[in-house]
Amino acid sequence: MEEQPGLSDQYRTASPWPVFIALGLVLSEIGVFIGLFPIAVFGLILFGGSIAGILTESGYVTHPWPTLVGVGVVLALVAAGLAVAYLPTASITVANIGNGPVFTRLVAVAVAGVVMVAAGGVGSVMERTKV
Known about the structure:
The chain is mostly helical and 131 residues long.
């Protein structure tokens, strides 16, 4: 008689990625809506990295780096698009970061996107040069 009927050594019983996706989503929402810049950036990076991780683990993609770059580009473009669409052009300056709540939150989303693009690019280069 088997100790765990129906389970095989071929399949893992659980994946850690759903927990990190949920945590990243919660942290990013708290950070963006309350206006906590570092928490918003960290939560978005955790969310994007977890999406790349779960897609790689499930076999939809072979490497996480292009997915990480893609999520980062989408975040940066959405933040830039919302800034251009809803904010006066004169208020989109580096000097206004921290002054307006909407602009500061959009900058947090854009920074998270840029960090993900950079991390994905560096990871891809490091993976190709690995001996």
